[in-house]
Amino acid sequence: NSRGTTSLLKDSISFTEVSAAGLFEGHDLLRRGFTSVKNELLPSHPLELTEKNFQLNQDKTNFGTLRNIQGIHAPLKLQMEFRAVKQVQRLPFLHSSNIAMDILRGNDECIGFEDILNDPSQSEVMGEPHMMMEHKLGLL
């Protein structure tokens, strides 16, 4: 039954997964890191997803409280300041402390986990500067 076989092939291969290089493209270790089954699984603990989104949830709560107390202009002004601070950054291969963002959020006087053990995504291992700039500019 050739009709059944073609319908199975259409269902099993989605066209969004096919890139410009084709189906047989290798995994890019420089950009995506090592593959792991653990990264593809759902969160192992119910609180893991909440902890990952903690800052976003706290910002939403703070904006809601600020809106109720001072009106709609206060959270809008603060969000514009957040966007302006996020746009100012160092070159991609240099570590940035984002002190302005910490000041806006009120975390500049708090000592947290990331202050002592650091965020693993901001490790001290510096990458190839030319490669990272080309990736950021979309040349790779």
Automatic annotation (TrEMBL):
InterPro entries attached to this UniProt entry: Ump1 (IPR008012)
Taxonomic source organism: Erithacus rubecula
Entry-linked Pfam families: UMP1
One Gene Ontology term from the biological process aspect of the record: proteasome assembly
Keywords: Chaperone
Xref: PANTHER family: PROTEASOME MATURATION PROTEIN, PROTEASOME MATURATION PROTEIN UMP1
Protein name in UniProt: POMP protein
GO cellular component terms, semicolon-separated: cytoplasm; nucleus
Family of this protein: Belongs to the POMP/UMP1 family.
